[in-house]
Design brief:
about 230 residues, mainly alpha, Serine Threonine Protein Phosphatase 5, Tetratricopeptide repeat, 2 domains, two-stranded antiparallel sheet, extended
Amino acid sequence: MLKARKKITKKEIKQDKLVTAYFQSKDWISSAENKRRIYTILGVIALILVLGYFYLSNRKAKNEEAETKLSAVISLYEQGKYQEAINGDPASGVTGLNDIVNNYGSTESGQTAKLYLANSYYFLKDYDNAYKYFDDYSGSNDMIKASCLSGIGSVYKVKGDLKKAGEYYYKAAGVNKDLIINQENLFYAVRAYSQSGDKEDARKVYDKLRNDFPKSRYISESKRFEADFKN
């Protein structure tokens, strides 16, 4: 008489597959050719990790170096010695903003130097170079990014393109809603749009200024342009 066949459970099937996979992988690994492949892959991973470590370490060191040089040259900038700030003072060992940007532009401090360099050119009325470095900022600091966009707006303003100036002041106010300089940039945008004859955008920005900053002193300052866009 035939005996009833034992029912195989799902658990036993799963265990059998795991055992089979284990021995198959063991056989695959024991192959000399496959061992070489594994060692090669592990070697590549180790090399990537080592290179990544040295890259990050070097970048950190470069940023600290740039920060030190920037701190030294800012004293010239704050004294209004803009040309000296751009070129540096070799006699005092002070590196200029131009060299800091060229040699450390990939670091955060090098990016910050672009704002100071652009402002220096702006104050010297070299508006093309000012625009160049305002526009070239690619750091992660929202305050500096907004300041650079506002700087571009100021370049367009002195060149007589008031509508474009208004656009950049408005962009500057939209970088980060928590920046303290937003209300100032909104005011600049209202003024620029009003003076350009763009009533619609002037009114829109004025309303935003009133809604977002109801206690701002720039609301009263904006009212002197209200006649230009009220109707």
